[in-house]
Amino acid sequence: MANHRFSVVSGSEEEEACCSKKAKICLGVFLGLLVLVTVAVVVGILMGRRSPKWNGKGSTVDFQEIILRRCHTYIRVVQPELGDRDCQKIKKAFTDAFISKDPCSAREEDYDLLMKLGHQTVPCDKTVFWSKTKELAHQYTKTQKGLFTLENTLLGYIADDLSWCGKVGSSEINLESCPDRRNCNSNFVSVFRNLLSKRFAENACGMVQVFLNGSISNAFDKTSTFGRVEVHSLQPSKVHTLKAWVIHDSGKTPRDTCSGSSINELQLILRGKNIKFTCQENYRPI
């Protein structure tokens, strides 16, 4: 017994050990919560950056390559007199207009540089509009050399039938879906086409022509690009006559004619602008 020694643990040492253990547990819980909160925030940010599902189809695959290729074809083959245009700058101005931006936030100003780089003068008496008659109008300009629809101009040619939009804060083109007019009027495709159509009409001079579809009830449709934008953008100081061709599908009963109510409405708009109006049905060669 004399050789045995007893160690005495004070109460204060026991309390200190207990507190240290509790502190470690609390620290572990705190770090665990911190990790969970951080993960939640990161997931939230990534989810927020995901592009919403729009009603329209996604950007055309290889959009930039197509723009560049069409531009080179146009200035080398279609209109060699525009051979001094810089297609690389045009491609960059086009993509810079919408890349990394909200697809429903387009403004005309976004396309200022592109419009400047792609500006083109169409000779007087050579402008052709169309509404629901695209194929026929293009057949007409092929047979009557020197005429221009919007798609026969540089910017109209390179953008024809393409779609495009970006993603907010991203340098990538959105290939999944893009907004159309069901989502917002300020989508980048609609704003571009309306702006290009407006400038095409504003620059027209002399006598201009329009191909309208007489196989539908309203050959002149106020909601079409021609009815909303182009006819109202014609400048009376430059355009003296608009000639309308009302085309009927072969073998089908005509639903609108030069004497129809919609054509009369078009005539009233032009009369208010002091522009002469003529109308003819069924251009036979096409």
Tell me about this structure:
The protein is 43% helix and 11% strand. The chain is an alpha/beta fold. Helix 9 (261-272) links the parallel strand 5 (239-247) and strand 6. The protein is globular and about 95 Å long. It has 9 helices and 6 strands; from the N terminus they run H-E-H-H-H-E-H-H-E-H-E-H-E-H-E. The model is unreliable at 4-9 and 39-49 (pLDDT under 50). The strands form 2 sheets. It has a 4-stranded parallel sheet, with helices on both faces. A two-stranded antiparallel ribbon has the order 1-3.
Question: What structural keywords apply?
Answer:
globular; 6 strands
List the helices and strands and how they pair.
Layout: H1 11-49, E1 56-57, H2 63-78, H3 87-96, H4 112-117, E2 128-131, H5 134-143, H6 154-159, E3 177-178, H7 188-202, E4 206-213, H8 225-233, E5 239-247, H9 261-272, E6 276-281
Parallel strand pairs: 2-4, 4-5, 5-6
Antiparallel strand pairs: 1-3
Helix pairs in contact: 2-3, 7-8
